[in-house]
Amino acid sequence: MADDNTNATLFFHGRRCRVATSKGKGRGVFGARTVVSAAYTEGLTAIDIATDAIAARTVLESSPVLLFTEEEYSKHGKHTLLDHYTFKWPDGRMALALGWGSLYNHSETPNVSFSINTSSEAITYTTCRDVAPDEELCIFYGHQLWFDNADAVACTSQTGQENGDANISQNPFAGSNSTEVLPEDELPFARTNVIPDEDRIIEEDAESIRKIKVWAADILDKRKTAALLTWIKECGLETNDLQHLKRIRHTKDPPSKSSLLLDKFRDDLHVPPSVPEDLSLALSEPYITEVPLFAAQTFTSLQLKTALWPTVYSPKRTGEGEPWTRGQAAWAWDAVNVLRDAATQAQSDGEAIPYDEDVQNESGMLTSFIAHDTRESMSHPLRHSVLNVVRRVADWRASQISKSISPTPATPSSDMQLASTSEISAISSAISSATSFTPPPVTQRNGMHYLLTGLTLFTTHEPCLMCTMALLHSRVREVVFLYPMDATGGCGGSTGLGTCVPRLKGVNHRFSILRWKGVDEDEAGVDRTLDA
Ligand SMILES: C[S@@+](CC[C@H](N)C(=O)[O-])C[C@H]1O[C@@H](n2cnc3c(N)ncnc32)[C@H](O)[C@@H]1O
Questions:
Q1: What is 326-516's CATH topology?
Q2: Beta strand pairing call for 211-218 and 189-192
Q3: Which atom of ligand 1 lies closest to the CA of 22?
Q4: Where does the SET domain lie (predicted)?
Q5: Separation of CA 25 and ligand 1 centre (Å)
Q6: In this predicted model, what pLDDT tens digit does every residue of 37-55 receive, in sequence order?
Q7: Where are the domains of the chain?
Q8: Ligand 1 pocket by C-beta < 6 Å: which residues?
Q9: Parallel, antiparallel, or unpaired: how do β-strands 44-51 and 26-31 relate?
């Protein structure tokens, strides 16, 4: 009798498929056949068989894998037939997919995508477009094949009509000219403005420059400059709100002098920072002066501001729209498809889906993490999909570090739980660093596992206020969402004009917000009553 506590439901076979011979490829996987009529005549049974068409984003199966250690594989498996069936698992072991996972043949235009789940040690196969009756179900193995691709010959004999059909839901941005910058109206998303209007003032005349009061002091003993800068750093005076200013101002006009920026003047604290005794003779009495509030965005503004205090030149503000190339748009399109597949999977299987997944690129390198909302299954109000996926990245980074400092394998996260809704978020690396996730150095400061610097978050539902704030703290680069959540979202909603945390005055990080275009508002299974 089955043990109710096993995770057997993580692995399933949809019984939508059958195994049959595929021309030039050996055995392959095809759609199931249905007997539509049977007749008996003169000792023979005549059977009419129709093969089912399969809709895009149908989960075909979730196959458990057998894992071989690197040593075991290089000594034994590599020298057997297994070598035609195994592939590299994210941690370096070699995997053999059970179920029918090892029988999907390769195609340059696959109709099935797969995602790897390291926690449940399974691979899920999902159709990535509509599959016609009798069409073989194929995946993409990668660019380095160890056999002659039977399709290469078959393709030349295909009719134009057949080719056209096979491309129904292909990435519209894929193909040549990946470096071409796309015009704004051809992008697959609309941008939300995250720069407050007041921050858009260019400040090109002396009156328009906004200022803040700071404590500064003149350096009396220049030999102590390095020691003074170390003290500033060590006592926590290097705060974000002064990052747009240089620490030292040199004035050449007689009398030439150097001054040190100490701290922001606070209305509730009218005393300057106290200087340590060994440095007290190196500085004059602190005084209050006015400096620019923001970095300079133009050269004219830079000149005016630097006359007050040396200011950083920063023509672009974080979160402001950057040009997108065709290649980047193709990457985002694929990521959104992976996200939709995962959402469909969660919806069709409810509790049977693990909350996290790691996605690899063709070369087997880790490029994305996927997580679901687990509020219901964990009875925990904070397990929103966005928070889960941030945590997933942090768990993975922590496991990489523990691996590099200890020979014992990292223990799996205690949070490997089941999803209960179709609400999903996925984090994917930005195209500029899409090759793999690099483990951080071992000497990591506490909390840095959570940093998403340079990464893009894709999410079905617009993140709520709490999740948006978490993303801000995590320094995410950009957020792409499919379904606006006008009542509860924190990223500007459907128009971009709703509540938008990164647009608030004074926040210390802004990220880009991209609303995916062409999303069917009534898309099946999307729960719009949840906060996400
Ligand atoms: C993972 S197995 C797939 C199942 C295999 N066809 C069978 O009968 O067991 C991989 C092997 O299938 C064959 N194969 C897969 N895709 C092919 C293709 N596009 N053209 C020719 N052979 C292919 C190759 O022999 C390859 O080593």
A1: Cytidine Deaminase; domain 2 (3.40.140)
A2: unpaired
A3: 6
A4: 15-142
A5: 5
A6: 444 444 444 444 456 778 8
A7: 8-166, 197-308, 326-516
A8: 24-28, 84-85, 102-103, 105-106, 147, 149-151
A9: unpaired
